[in-house]
Amino acid sequence: MQCRLFAMLAGLVALLAIGSSQMLSGGENEAGPVIDLSAPNILGLPRGAISGGGSLMVCGGGQLPEEVYDEFVKLAGGPSGRLVLIPSAYPYANLEALNYRFNGWLRYPVQSFHFVHASTREEADSEEFARPLAEATGVWLSGGAQGRLADLYKGTRVEQQLQRVLERGGVIGGTSAGAAIMSETMIRYGTSREAVTDAGFGLLMSAVVDQHFTERSRHTRLLGVLGQNPQKIGLGVDEQTALIIRANRVRVLGQNRATVIVPDQYRTMSLHLLASGEEAEIIRSKDEVESRLKLLPANLAKK
């Protein structure tokens, strides 16, 4: 059910810029950052996604740098990856149009690459149609209108299979509309100051995603949505930038920044800015009666 939200400043917002000089050392070995796979599911990933080691790549739109796509393919298994691209946020007419628009994906030497592009919900809910997703190690959701993705795929086998990709250790990436659809509370459309929300895919049950974040001055509207959902974490991603999520760890890759808005127990919020190459962990305090979320600066992400 859609609900119109007028933007409001929900409680006190503290600005905290996190620079590389503030990062704490430790917690990393030669293989990369150590992820606690038994950690609580703070961001509300699908059941089994943390223990399975799945990742989300939330991209803010615009012209993404090659390093973002390269990292996605790497997370999907590199040469052994089985990739699926869902372009349905835009009404592409045929396979020829898809091949022309997404020809850059064809240069990656992966095991397989498929488009999954439904015309109806009935098609999206068929076992045969969703079969490529059942075998995928990486799924990419391209841009357009997130409402189209929700109308076609919400509650179908496609959505179920997306959750299973994460549970078996795969990666799901999306840009613009493909990022917005990831959160259960989805910003369907709006202006810089207000938002209309709807139900997204639920890959992030406890967070709200917004994209084109700084470029379109969407801070106010995201704060308004969080004011109506005070237990959820806000994730705003700038253009040409990716926020990579694994368990409760977030890492920024690309040209600009990601903004993480964390609620406090007193209905206040802290706003954290992460630049490219920076990484942080969202933790839950254990010594308080009310659960409290805060952002813990972590070691620099490996490039």
TrEMBL record:
It holds the Pfam family Peptidase_S51. Its EC number is 3.4.15.6. The keyword Magnesium does not apply. The keyword Hydrolase applies. It catalyses: [L-4-(L-arginin-2-N-yl)aspartate](n) + H2O = [L-4-(L-arginin-2-N-yl)aspartate](n-1) + L-4-(L-arginin-2-N-yl)aspartate. It is an enzyme of class 3 (hydrolase). One of its GO terms (molecular function) is peptidyl-dipeptidase activity. InterPro entries: Class_I_gatase-like, Peptidase_S51, Peptidase_S51_cyanophycinase. CDD domains: GAT1_cyanophycinase. Residues 1-26 form the signal peptide. One of its GO terms (biological process) is proteolysis. Keywords: Carboxypeptidase, Hydrolase, Protease, Serine protease, Signal. Belongs to the peptidase S51 family. Exopeptidase that catalyzes the hydrolytic cleavage of multi-L-arginyl-poly-L-aspartic acid (cyanophycin; a water-insoluble reserve polymer) into aspartate-arginine dipeptides. PANTHER family: CYANOPHYCINASE. This is Cyanophycinase.
